[in-house]
Amino acid sequence: MKRVSTERQRISNSTVSVDSSGDLPSFVVAILRQRLLQWYGARGRDLPWRRTRDPYAIWISEVMLQQTQVKTVIPYYTRWLEALPAIADLAAADQTQVLKLWQGLGYYARARNLHQAAQQVMEQHQGMFPSTLPEVVALPGIGRTTAGGILSAAFNQPVSILDGNVKRVLTRLIALERPVKKASKLLWQTSDQLLDPVQPGAFNQALMDLGATVCLPRTPDCGACPWSDSCRAFQQGMQNELPIREEKAPIPHKVIGVAVIWNDAGQILIDRRPQSGLLGGLWEFPGGKIEPGETVEECIRREIQEELGIEVEVGDRLISLDHAYSHFRVTLNVHHCRHVSGDPQPIECDEIRWVTLAELDQYPFPAANVQIIDALKQNAIRRSPKD
Questions:
Q1: Homologous superfamily of 253-383
Q2: How many other CB atoms are there within 10 angstroms of residue 42's CB atom?
Q3: Which of 55, 285, 292, 355 shows a CA-CA span of 20 to 30 A to 168?
Q4: Identified catalytic residue from 62, 284, 303, 307
Q5: Active-site residue 62, yes or no?
């Protein structure tokens, strides 16, 4: 026992040099694995999806965590599993319910893919989440990293991952001096080589935690890092310069005219976006991009005629708001409108409905449209007669 303890101490105290080839000596790999798992045992985050081996629950968490912070995901994850606790429940759910549960998380294709994948699991795998890499990546919305996260955490299979946090950790570890997008093969090779074959689930979670809590994008806490004396970026004082960032093109800005169309019964017209494309399957207030030389009012009248085949009278402005998406930003100029003539038709959408203000909460809307609903409610309160 004393001999084993002495050996562990020797490994713990040793300084390990990592080169930039991605081909790590076996003794280096062993030390890095041990240090990371020891650190994770003491410093790892207690997250709800880490308290289960249910592949469905882990799958939901992995998809929600794509491009979304943990603190944002936790309440959504809890609500989702309360409403849809099993694959069969998700597969049988109406898409409106699925998108409503997802509302506010963004990147709505993730929710649509979860829904489709659950139906595929029921049809092709008798309701049991598959346990092989080819079967898992064949499901809609699941790539290699998501599959690795599920298979390692739920089935303890030695399948590596390479999410944004892991890319940053490995880039600094080997001091990769070229953009991450141009070194995907090398980073996957490094992730594969480092993965602990005995505790792959814990190792992958530890690697993600290291990137999320210590090896931060702008102010890495190198003093708390179990890999700092092995990290080439830290040794060379380059940790704040890596990963190398590629120059991004300016983000386009779209100015949109939006109509809240009322009928004589006090109902509002909403439409459902096509399934494909941005915000597919969500409901919205109709409108479109303001063309050069066009006023907001002219834009709204034209767009409503083109999209729904009706004439409207454009009234007072309700609200103007800015919203940013991943690749562009928009300014929405929202006006009250009155339905004048014509029967609404779903010309450029999947479905249309007349609903009351109170019924709007039953439908999944994009985040920017939720702000419009809030403004409508506030406007209704202001206009209501005093007791």
A1: Nucleoside Triphosphate Pyrophosphohydrolase (3.90.79.10)
A2: 8
A3: 55
A4: 62
A5: yes
